[in-house]
Write a structure and sequence with these properties.
Layout: H1 2-16, E1 23-28, H2 38-46, H3 48-51, E2 54-59, H4 67-72, E3 78-79, H5 83-91, E4 128-131, H6 137-147, E5 156-159
Parallel strand pairs: 1-2, 1-3, 4-5
Length: about 160
């Protein structure tokens, strides 16, 4: 009986002990909140993060291009970024690494209005293209255009950054 009482007291003490605080994680998003972040929001809303002892704060950046640099500066614990951007950052010595994948394929496209009559990369010559991530998308666009024989000096590239929506 004494053993049962001791076990009961131990169980009650364990139940009454304060819960361990969840580990705070600051997550910088790559852009304003959008469908690409669905898995992150699903994990938060379903309690999956909490069940793992995590309190995840999602932060939308003021400037998408600054996200990896803010991470490297210690302003966040994790950041959503783009794989090709990671290559350029590592090449420049920025101390970041890839730890996971949200979406298993690139989401970047060159998109035009149907009425623009642009059907191939060559049709962009003499046109203006907007992009959102400097140092990554502009380089990718120039490479794509060059591969199609387009004179990139005849294509105007405009950094729309966060105003691309």
């Amino acid at each position: 009986m004494k053993k049962v009482m001791l076990m009961l007291v131990a169980l009650l003490m364990a139940a009454a002990a304060p819960a361990q605080a969840a580990q705070k994680v600051r997550l910088l998003l790559d852009w304003f909140v959008n469908p690409n972040h669905a898995a992150i929001f699903a994990a938060k809303e379903s309690g999956a993060f909490a069940r793992q002892g995590l309190d995840v704060e999602m932060i939308a950046p003021a400037d998408s291009a600054s996200v990896p640099l803010l991470l490297a500066a210690g302003k966040a614990d994790l950041a959503v970024s783009y794989q090709p951007q990671l290559y350029t950052l590592v090449d420049k010595g920025v101390p970041v690494i890839r730890v996971g994948t949200l979406i298993g394929q690139p989401l970047n496209t060159l998109t035009t209005l149907k009425s623009s009559h642009i059907h191939t990369l060559r049709d962009f010559e003499g046109k203006t293209l907007g992009y959102a991530i400097p140092g990554f998308e502009d380089v990718a666009i120039q490479t794509m255009l060059k591969s199609a024989g387009v004179d990139v000096d005849k294509v105007k590239l405009i950094n729309l950054n966060m105003d691309a929506a």
